[in-house]
Design a protein that fits this description.
The complex is a heterodimer of chains A (355) and B (250). Chain A has 2 domains: 216 residues, Rossmann fold (3-Layer(aba) Sandwich), CATH 3.40.50; 111 residues, Rossmann fold (3-Layer(aba) Sandwich), CATH 3.40.50.920. Chain A is 38% helix and 20% strand. Chain A contains 12 helices and 17 strands. In chain A, strand 13, helix 9 and strand 14 form a beta-alpha-beta unit. Chain A is globular, with a radius of gyration of 20 Å. Chain B has a single domain, classed as Thiamin diphosphate (ThDP)-binding fold, Pyr/PP domains (Rossmann fold). Helices cover 38% and strands 17% of the residues of chain B. The chains are: A alpha/beta (355), B alpha/beta (250). At the A-B interface, helix 3, helix 4 and strand 11 of A face strand 1, strand 2, helix 3 and helix 5 of B. Strand 11 of chain A pairs parallel with strand 2 of chain B.
């Protein structure tokens, strides 16, 4: 992802959250606004150290509500800005995210999710899938959602997030969890050329041009209808940026669908059952919205059994059911937060659904 | 013939929608005049809030972002931190600033955020139809305090200009009213001063304007003006509560 010089960091091990922060810096983001919450604190801690040295700004805001609105304000000037938080904090941001979508403002929001509902716990969970992919706040809108499954992807997808936010003038969410946030892996850090489209809509003072107004209030007859259809068409266009990882789809008898940290556990499990002679495929959605429905639809014409595995009681499984061809059996294995799935456990589930 | 009075350059030609006797029109004009006077029309970015004030984006001929309800000070913070050379102001009512947005304004003030806030206090929620505000006076009847505001039930009206003046990050805090020619001149001076503080990088500045809402007060414009004199000013005294001389931060 990104062109330019590649700096091999050798065997330097980097924490997922720090890799994400490095990705933000390498994407040209110099403005961060956030409020402390576990398990994402490495992100603000890293950026509070590095952004001031790069001429940027770091504000520890009074709340997540203030954080997202600072992102909104910075975004209105056409400047790359981000915030990060976890479950409860992301809930508080939903109003601001809705306004950003309505006012067509780019921005990156990171959810290194906790397990809820309520205060829940800090164990890995995928319980925020609905919140991330269904809009989350009020009104008819969507945010683009990226789900990294490795430290390298925490970095790469953060750069991608800023590019997509600018491309669509829409908020982009990165949905991770404590596993991808806290684990350490080798990272290849690139120095990409920061590519930003022209932002003639940005507020920088009405000098030598008409004034710019950024708003989401449309009271005139038919104005809001037109605006919401325009947003909808944009969400449809996002399909050209669908990302997923696909393994063994050609000869699979069963295809596992899993995202984020569960996706990589599933990959290991699939390698285990393959060795035992059970042909199994994997589709790991990397964009959760737009959802990779096309590849699921095409594959389901050949493969009768799909197995969705999530660290929740069943959320993404709904999108898989909406994507498959008629007659496909969609099995589900879910685990509410508290303990992580092991490859052995997943391998066993795969085999029990195949026999 | 020489033109001695004209529409400020920073306002558009669009006629105000405000009710007869409402002071928003005067406040808009006065802010626009200050922008013109300081020659900052091409550098200024306005942050509109939710309430009767939201249509600021139609009336001001400058760049404007509409903030979610109460969040204008946080939005202005984001704008200013991204664009330090621009001049940034918010324009907020009492429900927006003193109720739902009180955390945002207090923390922006406490950070010494170099922005200017125009706070329009008419002691009532205007746009939603006259409900009780945090600034509603004791005894004042509104649609949600039908027996009059009672401190045992609803607490006391908040004096924002005085409260914010206690914070170190604040460079200028004043309260003004439009009820007499003298007070209009004071108001004009205070609004200019607030923007000058920002231009001199002195930190957070706020001007609270006591404003009439004849419609929701159930009064004629003249009676509303009288209410400002006889009921509001005694509780919300006019004046400058803080004026920083040098940009000291202790």
């Amino acid at each position: 992802m990104g062109k330019g010089r590649i700096e091999e960091k050798g065997l330097d091990l980097v924490k997922g959250n720090e890799a994400l922060a490095m990705g933000a810096i390498d994407a040209g983001c110099r403005l961060y606004f956030g409020y402390p919450i576990t398990p994402q604190n490495d992100i603000p801690e890293y950026l509070s150290k590095h952004l001031p040295l790069l001429g940027g700004e770091f504000i520890q805001a009074e709340s997540e509500i203030a954080s997202i609105n600072m992102v909104l304000g910075a975004a209105a000037t056409g400047t790359r800005a981000m915030t990060s938080s976890s479950g409860p904090g992301i809930s508080l941001m939903q109003e601001g995210i809705s306004y950003m979508a309505g006012s067509e403002l780019p921005g990156v929001i990171v959810n290194i999710s906790r397990s809820g509902p309520g205060l829940g716990g800090i164990a890995p969970s995928q319980g925020d899938y609905f919140q991330a992919t269904r809009g989350g706040g009020h009104g008819d809108y969507r945010v683009l959602v990226l789900a990294p499954s490795s430290v390298q992807e925490m970095y790469d997808l953060t750069i991608k997030a800023f590019e997509l936010a600018d491309k669509y003038r829409n908020p982009v969410m990165i949905l991770g969890d404590a596993i991808v946030g806290q684990m350490k892996e080798p990272l290849v850090r690139r120095t990409p050329e920061v590519r930003e489209p022209p932002k003639e809509w940005a507020l920088r003072g009405a000098k030598g041009r008409e004034k710019n107004v950024l708003k989401s209030l449309y009271l005139g007859e038919g104005e809001l209808t037109q605006h919401v259809w325009k947003l909808h068409q944009k969400y449809e266009r996002m399909k050209e940026d669908v990302l997923y990882e696909a393994i063994n789809l050609q000869d699979a008898r069963l295809v596992v669908v899993a995202f984020g940290s569960v996706g990589r556990v599933a990959r290991t499990a699939i390698e285990m059952v393959q060795k035992e002679g059970y042909p199994t495929g994997l589709i790991r959605p990397i964009t959760l919205f737009p959802f990779p429905e096309e590849v699921i639809w095409e594959t389901s014409k050949r493969v009768r059994d799909f197995l969705v595995i999530e660290l929740n009681t069943g959320q993404m499984v709904e999108d898989v059911k909406l994507s498959v061809a008629e007659g496909t059996r969609v099995h589900f294995y879910g685990k509410p937060p508290g303990s992580m799935l092991t490859p052995e456990e997943v391998a066993e589930v795969i085999l029990s659904n195949m026999k | 013939m020489k033109k001695v009075f004209k529409r400020p350059e920073s306002l558009t030609e669009k006629p105000f929608h405000f009710c007869p006797g409402c002071h928003h029109g005067i406040a808009h004009r006065m802010v626009a005049e200050a922008i013109d006077h300081l020659g900052i029309k091409e550098r200024i970015i306005g942050v509109a809030s939710v309430g009767c004030s939201v249509f600021l984006y139609d009336y001001f001929d400058v760049d404007v972002i509409e903030a979610p309800h109460g969040r204008a000070a946080a939005v202005a913070t984001g704008v200013k931190r991204a664009r330090r050379d621009n001049v940034v102001f918010t324009y907020q009512g009492d429900g927006d600033l003193a109720s739902i947005g009180i955390a945002e304004v207090v923390h922006a003030a406490n950070r010494g955020e170099n922005i200017t806030i125009i706070f329009v206090n008419n002691s009532v929620y205007g746009m939603t139809g006259g409900q009780m505000a945090p600034t509603t006076l004791l005894g004042q009847k509104t649609t949600t305090s039908p027996y009059g505001r009672d401190f045992t039930q609803d607490g006391y009206p908040i004096r924002m200009a005085e409260m914010l003046a206690t914070l170190e990050g604040v460079s200028f805090s004043a309260r003004v009213a439009f009820n007499s020619p003298k007070n209009l001149l004071q108001a004009q001076k205070a609004i200019r001063k607030a923007f000058e503080m920002q231009l001199n990088r002195m930190g957070f500045s706020i001007v609270e304007i006591l404003s009439a809402c004849p419609t929701n007060w159930g009064l004629s414009p003249l009676e509303a003006k009288k209410r400002i004199e006889e009921e509001m000013i005694p509780y919300y005294p006019l004046g400058v509560f803080k004026e920083r001389e040098i940009p000291d931060y202790l």
